[in-house]
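Fill-in record for RNA polymerase sigma-70 factor.
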Amino acid sequence: MEESRIIRLLKEGDRGAFSLLYKRYWQKVYGFCRLYLNSCERAEDVVQEVFIKLWEARELLREDDSPEGFLFIVTRNLVFNQYRKEVNEDYYKMTVLSALESSYDIEEEIAARDLSRYIDRLIEELPEKRRQIFNLSRKAHKSHKEIALLLGISEKTVENQIREALRFLRKNMLLLICFLG
């Protein structure tokens, strides 16, 4: 059947003419869609939408125009809209993932800062001499021998005080972990 006659029948609402155009052009439309879209399902969706638009705009078609030109323009526009949508979705997903990663980094940083403050408070609870020895060891990075000489005490006393300080910190950290867990 001649295309001008098919268009005329289509304009009159003939579903047979529509079906004929669909059978004649759906593969070309689908092939064009697949060139630009990653998903077969999305390409099929665009094909359906193209032919829906053909049906909706049938009265605007001119009998001397090729339906192929109309279908190409509609397909191109829908494919690029779909492609733009996919790019925006990908960008959105990447933005969300990046934000989530950043928020985890920020949360971890806050948690680390809070933990550090908690440990500092625990250290402040140590008896004064033990706290002094512990700070010289851990914060000033002095050896047991240097601390003993500096404070005029035995190295064994330094070791015992550090061991007791660490035991106190571990016990309180364990309580914190049990409380949070």
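KEY FINDING: The chain has a mean pLDDT of 85.
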